[in-house]
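job 3f2a | input accepted
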Amino acid sequence: MRILFITATRIGDAVLSTGLLDHLIRQYPQARFVVACGPAAEGVFARMPGRAWTIVLAKRRLRLHWLELWREVGTQRWDLVVDLRGSAFAFLLRARRRFVMRGGRQPGPRIIHLGALMGLDPPPLPVAWFNAADRARAAVLLPGDGPWIALGPTANWDRKVWPAERFVALFRALTAPGEPLAGARAAILGGPGPQEAAMAAPVLAALGDRAVDLVGRISLPEAAAVLARSALFVGNDSGLMHLSAATGTPTLGLFGPSRVQEYAPSGRRTATAIAPGSPALDSMTGLTLDQALAAARGLLAEPLPA
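job 3f2a | predicted structure (306 res):
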């Protein structure tokens, strides 16, 4: 069986789509999957079971990336085509069955819309794929038996970013004597490039030898293994937040007053802390340390899922 799965450009949306892929892998264990995604999201699928290959779609002028995809897949017959980009492309292919996401933004959680595409209620939770080599790498990066807290102080734009000094204060409060994560160390994660490095730099400088710098230094499967090894993730609305939730690690997402209903983390143990105010302002400065600390403590106090 041959399945073409056309998914997102961004890491977060790509991670959210892994629940559908996991459902299809379980339903058709002998199928061979071809995944089409954006360059940033390629690593999400690198360890995926049943993957024949990945087609990286870099956006081009005049939508020429669709022509490139046609050259790769247009002459083949497909048993199933799933198009989460809401394009007409799937209808140009020879396919026995098609699932095509409706275009444009829809109100409500993204994961529910993804599940509804295949009539799945409740929707399947995202998964994170990594292998033994990634686990071994994570064990080297986060050594010892003591707990680690993963922090994601970066995002793809600055209006999503909680102030660095509050990340530092939150970490210190969570690791103080008497806290469940007393004495924990910090793994600081972020994407590649100078902008993300600059966002993380004040947190790294303040925490000194209590933190390890992983910003832009590891692959997405290695990041998934690092997150799975962590006792808690706290971070801005980002692809890393969604990846953490997919691993099953307790994940606290920090949000401004907009889009949390659509992009709250989806996983077995997740929570959000939301800045008050008007969505038009979209400011993270209103999210207080006390709010985030209460949300983190509440998340850690939750019983493990059955």
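job 3f2a | The domain at 133-301 is CATH 3.40.50.2000 (Rossmann fold).
job 3f2a | closed
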